Amino acid sequence: MRPYPTSTAKTAMSATSDDGAIRNENPDSGAARKGRESHGAPHEHNGRMNAASSRRERTADTDKNLSGFDGRTGGDAPIHASAIDEFADRAADATVSDARPGTEKLDVLLLEDSPSDAALIEKALAEGACRYTLRRVARFREGVQLLHDTPASFDVILADLSLPDSFGLDTVRRLRDEAPNTAIVVLTSQDSDEVAMQSLYHGAQDFLVKDRLTFDALDRAMRYAVQRQMNGQMRRLLARVRDSERLLERKNRRLRRLYHTAHRFVDNVSHEFRTPLTVMKEYVSLIAEGLVGPLNDEQASMLEVVSDRTDDLNNMVDDLLDVSKLDAGILGASRTYCQVPRIVDHVLPSLERKARVKQVSLVTDIAPDLPDVYCDPDKVGRVIVNLTINAVKFCGEPGHVRLWARLGDHGHDVEIGVTDNGPGIEAESLDIIFRRFKQLRNNPRGSTKGVGLGLNIVKELVQLNLGNVHVDSAPGEGSTFSFTVPTADPQHVVQCFVRHLERQPRTARRRVALVVARIDDETAGPMADDVSALLTYLLRRDDLLLRIDSLRWLLVLPRTAVGLDQFLSRAENVWRKANRNRPYGPLPAVSYERVGAWPLSDGREELLEAARQSFAPTEVAHA
């Protein structure tokens, strides 16, 4: 529906009486004939409007609030625009149009079988101050066909109640069924309050008697009818929104119960697995170390196999837990500045034991002088473990696996990879291997069959650490699985983080806020690491925390304005709770400066520039 104009001008016409009423001079016209049939004689008119009183009335009408108010009904209750944006925008457009009379028009469908009555109405609309486009049909079925052929093309329907193929209130009921979103104004010769009220009850917005019709009344009735129809749509839509909200809330409560039930189930199962596995591993370790008596070589070899299989089961439990957290959106990343050699050294002993059990040669090739990286070291270690275990499983005979790390081609990322001499992977299978619960059939070493989650988790964990996974493989030539980790250059980390957000459907259209957290007390430096841990605790999965210097941090948060307020309020509450029972004194006060917020869609460069300016010229301190 287009916005409608307002007009208070009165137009003189040759077909009117001196009081401005539309008159049909032909005694055999359809209006006069229908009037005689209904009431036996034309209606008598009491009183006339002079020009001054007419102008006062029209001015008062124009000044009224048109939100569904006329002389018979009260004002509508206020509607919350955020729940019904479409109708609010249309109402705003209509308000703007009211200030510029005649700049917009209404499209009108006239259902009238009397040519003389239709001519008068057409002439009134054509010569009035407002702009209208009029389509006229003489039969109900023709009007319905026009509504079907051109849906949503009419703002208002002027309907006679005495059509050849539709009569009385049935016309209103059928029109409302055919055009539920279009305003209806009844035009009839029947001057009956009962018919008028029944017409309104069955869906019309106004009721006009032809013999008492003035040009201004017709214009006003159509404009008010359009507004009433829109208000009715708004009320109905608001009712549906409220019903939907109640239904959604019930479903959300049920989903929360199911989620917590499923989460408890996974946690309980994982715990029940871990407890006996831990006991088995510890007893195997005690026996292998000779604490319960000496072992021969064959016994020691068997114990290594048991320990290896125990590690396999532990890895499966870790995979199941990670998948559960990924699906729930609660697998976060505790990113910090760290060194690749230390990450590799932490996971290497268990990998060497597995390679020794499988009789596979495992060598490491870590480039010297690698720059620090910014990542979650535990999760990067998980990636290295999963890739190396896969390489040990699928390498050739004799098996050779190389774990390596080097500086990337452009110097902004460190690339870590695992290369094996296995049978290789067909090109069409390269995408399949990263899907959940998908496994290739070739397993020459007959290792313990996994659950098909390892590489899927690898991909998720690498993306969580702002990197990318790459596979280079061909049949008969072995395989190389590698991934990147950003170096500890804060500006580059922010760029990687923005690219990560742009890849995620849940964050690609959000605004991203920058906040600088600061310890104002310069003497509180020794407790800065505790503050850093508290800020890390506050983060969600898609948040980023960067240490600027010893007393400042940059938070990059994909949040709405309300979400940012909630985050800062939560930060204050967590800080107060942390200070209640600290044995070594309270944490220093932390202030938060809002740098700004930008949409990812068109504010990417401004966001990166603001992040660059937020970093002090001093060297970044390592968290």
SSE diagram, text form:
Blueprint: H1 30-39, H2 51-63, H3 85-98, E1 105-111, H4 115-127, E2 131-137, H5 140-149, E3 156-160, E4 162-163, E5 166-167, H6 169-178, E6 183-188, H7 193-201, E7 206-209, H8 215-288, H9 297-328, E8 336-338, H10 340-357, E9 360-366, E10 373-375, H11 377-394, E11 399-407, E12 413-420, H12 454-464, E13 469-473, E14 479-486, H13 490-503, E15 511-519, H14 528-538, E16 544-549, E17 552-558, H15 561-580, E18 590-599, H16 604-614
Parallel strand pairs: 1-2, 1-3, 3-6, 6-7, 9-11
Antiparallel strand pairs: 4-5, 8-10, 11-12, 12-14, 13-14, 15-17, 15-18, 16-17
Helix pairs in contact: 8-9, 9-10, 10-11, 11-12, 13-16
What would the average pLDDT be, to the nearest integer?
Answer: 75
Overall CATH architecture of the largest domain: 3-Layer(aba) Sandwich
Oligomer: single chain
Q: How many beta-strand runs?
A: 18
Instruction: Give the strand order, joined by hyphens, for the main sheet.
Output: 2-1-3-6-7
- The radius of gyration over CA amounts to 39 Å
CATH level-four homologous superfamily name of the largest domain: Response regulator
CATH class of the largest domain: Alpha Beta
Q: What percentage of residues falls in helices of 4 or more residues?
A: 40-55%
What structural category arises from helix and sheet content? alpha/beta
Work out the count of structural domains: 3
CATH topology of the largest domain: Rossmann fold
**What's the overall geometry?**
elongated
Main beta sheet = 5 strands, parallel
List low-confidence stretches: 1-103, 618-623
Roughly what fraction of the amino acids lie in strands? 15-25%
Number of helices: 16
How many angstroms does the end-to-end distance come to?
59 Å
